[in-house]
Specification:
Shape: elongated
Number of domains: 1
Strand content: 25-35%
Strand order of the largest sheet: 2-1-3-7-6
Mean pLDDT: 74
Number of strands: 7
Distance between the termini: 95 Å
Structural class: alpha+beta
Radius of gyration: 30 Å
Number of helices: 2
Helix content: 10-25%
Low-confidence stretches: 16-24, 28-32
């Protein structure tokens, strides 16, 4: 009797393993990782040479027109308006900062999103055209660096 119970138990246990076997089949569709690096578009840049002592607007020049080298004098400022695009969505964009020689120098402040920024490529399937901005993917920042 013990032998019959032991044989029946062994038969049940071996069939349980056979029933638990999982079969997988490929369907021919893959999914790539969805973690993309953000892209940066410089919307505007201005070099502020010196503030006006009378409290009026500071005289400004375009960084690319008059300066042929990468230098600043003490007290001069570079103002950047940048658009950051993340194909994973704008919620993945935390903050922006200017970094010099490996250390953060200026934390940028959120700004109004312009309607376009040359150089931005649209996310696949978004319906956006080249350069067009969208608050679902983009955030704008204002950065002001002062030379010391």
């Amino acid at each position: 009797m013990k032998f019959a119970i032991l044989a029946a138990t062994a038969l049940l246990l071996s069939s349980a393993f056979a029933l638990a076997d999982v079969v997988t089949v490929g369907v021919g569709a893959g999914a790539a990782p969805g973690n993309f690096d953000p892209k940066i578009c410089v919307y505007d840049r201005t070099l502020i040479v010196s503030p006006d002592n009378l409290g009026q607007d500071a005289p400004t020049i375009n960084v690319l027109e008059l300066r042929t080298s990468n230098y600043l004098f003490t007290g001069e400022q570079i103002e950047y308006l940048v658009v950051v695009r993340d194909y994973n969505g704008a919620l993945d964009i935390g903050h922006a900062f200017i970094q010099l020689n490996g250390s953060a120098e200026v934390v940028c402040n959120p700004d109004d999103l312009p309607s376009s920024c040359d150089g931005l490529t649209p996310p696949t399937g978004s319906g956006l055209s080249n350069g067009e901005t969208d608050s679902d993917y983009d955030k704008a920042f204002h950065c002001l660096y002062t030379a010391e």
